[in-house]
Amino acid sequence: MESETNADVVRLRIYLNERQRVHGKPLYEFLVHEARRMHIAGATVVRGVLGFGARSHWHAASVLSLSDDLPVVIDLVDTREKLDAFVPTVRDHLEDGIATIEPVTVVARAPV
């Protein structure tokens, strides 16, 4: 991604819940490990405190409960070509959720 222009950079955003598993580990963890293995430029996992999906089922954190079904968002940033190559991995494992690709404008970047 070092020499790419802003027109080439996109974000793959994956919405899921933390209960989803693959090979016995959280799906979000599996996807981030796969992204790293495929040399995707960056990935971040954010755990939400409240959300709902297509089925309108609430996913919420509460002081009285320790939920293991909270919303999770994974953001991956790289070129369209690299993220398009990663999409089949997402499709193969995402049972409940949604994934989107949006163009982004890089305004600052740490040195590699």
What features would you highlight for this structure?
22% helix, 2 helices, Alpha-Beta Plaits, alpha+beta, 36% strand, 112 residues, two-stranded antiparallel sheet, four-stranded antiparallel sheet
Low-pLDDT runs of 5+ residues are none
For the sheet with most strands, the description reads: 4 strands, antiparallel
Name the CATH architecture: 2-Layer Sandwich
- Walk across the major sheet and give the strand order: 4-7-1-8
Shape: globular
CATH topology: Alpha-Beta Plaits
What is the percentage of strand-forming residues?
Answer: 35-45%
Number of helices: 2
Q: What is the highest CATH level, the class?
A: Alpha Beta
Number of strands: 8
Order of helices and strands: EEEHEEEEHE
Percent range of helical residues:
10-25%
Give the CA-CA distance, first to last residue: 10 Å
Structural commentary:
It is a single chain. This protein is α+β, with helices and mostly antiparallel strands and 112 residues long. The chain has one domain: 2-Layer Sandwich (Alpha-Beta Plaits). The protein is built from two helices and eight strands. It has helices spanning 27-37, 80-93; strands at residues 9-17, 21-22, 25-26, 42-47, 50-52, 58-60, 71-79, 98-103. Strands 4-7-1-8 form a four-stranded antiparallel β-sheet. Strands 2-3 form a two-stranded antiparallel sheet. A two-stranded antiparallel sheet has the order 5-6. It starts with 8 loop residues before the first strand and ends in a 9-residue tail after the last strand. The model has no long low-confidence stretch (mean pLDDT 86).
